Here is the input.
Amino acid sequence: MSKAKKKELPIILITNDDGVTAPGIIALTEAMIGLGKIVVVAPDKPQSAMGHAITIGQPLRLSKVKGVEGAETYSCSGTPVDCVKLAVDKVLHRKPDICISGINHGANHSINVIYSGTMSAALEASIESIPSIGFSLMDYSIEADFTAAKKIARQLVEFILNGKTLDKHLCLNVNIPAIEEKLIKGIKVCKQAYAKYDEKFDERKDPHGRRYFWLTGIFQNFDKAKDTDVWALKHNYVSVVPVQFDLTNYELKKKLEKNWTL
Amino acid sequence: MSKAKKKELPIILITNDDGVTAPGIIALTEAMIGLGKIVVVAPDKPQSAMGHAITIGQPLRLSKVKGVEGAETYSCSGTPVDCVKLAVDKVLHRKPDICISGINHGANHSINVIYSGTMSAALEASIESIPSIGFSLMDYSIEADFTAAKKIARQLVEFILNGKTLDKHLCLNVNIPAIEEKLIKGIKVCKQAYAKYDEKFDERKDPHGRRYFWLTGIFQNFDKAKDTDVWALKHNYVSVVPVQFDLTNYELKKKLEKNWTL
Here is the structure.
């Protein structure tokens, strides 16, 4: 590598929603060592299912903490999306070359992309024209084995850093099945399945006799297509869904323009 | 109206992100009187910019409170999305015929749809195949004039309740300019503009000398198209963006399938 190139090490920003001390973000950081300057800015507490929430009503705190050797690590009091915004403005003072989020403890396929703090952080980066990838391993356990996920993460980050720009708002939602590495059949580019939780609230009474409710649910796949993330994961593939932030329903837009009677 | 029809009054679920006592949700509820059975389930405190966050780590509370005469009103300790989920499962015990959210104090056009609790509640309903509309008035003031917004909301809800099903996941993002009713030129079906805040954090020190950060930003429109919500609002139209929850970037999916070298 030439001296000139050494000066231009890519900056890799890492965040997550399970918090700065989660095994998943430590695994992801370890997997990036040697690929560039690595900066971690992640929530100081679990922020799962925070979606695209941002903090507007109160101030944010940022503290330098000890993380993985070779990475600069900060703990932030805000949401995953806050972490990305704050990292760009107050830690990096520029846009990183890539922003990666995870490795999430648990799946973020199908509709979960909308609730996921991990994926919302990645999407936030892509809104800012920073290429981004969110990684999730289909294993909620604190002792999950990230060996295969780490290899896949490194491979994908290298692919994006070295490749041509496929989209200035590139954002990938990567889910990894929780199986032995040798059983993974490959990587499939997919669409988001229409699959979601059939939700029920567990109704209980507190010691004072007042009702409270806990969210529970059973996962259901309504999507029979074979190019979905749910299909790929079920068949032992890593799923990669390219994600975008333009929520316009263009088909319905056309229909409404024709049917509008107001 | 026949007796049979009287029994089948549509159920209108109302929520918001500014909280159950906000003038905007009171205006929206008043505007619906006479159109069906009206049930309000809204956050017990402001939940702006909560995006699609849901509460999974703690229980939710629900209390019946006094609201607008003619509407059943509940206050919920959760996010706007929690309110929709809890209303369907524990208050209505069925899906409502429509779910409306707002009237938000402030605009939710362009990228704001992703951060907005108001729009996330509407989107949550559409995920559950409940037609939904989110309403926002471009006036943050607590004393905003909702006169025109109320008429438009009633007109649109009647259009959806009486009309044919245009999409089983119908969700509309409606923004209303903060101008006199007679100056509103009409309603325009639009796409979401690529326009967003150029964000900076205001850095301050607390009384103990520790740094903290407040989010600030300047709104910038990068989208020169004339069929965007930002264009419509600037030209005194009500903007209606049909919104969807499939975040798949199909164009990038095709490109990746061609370029994939892993």
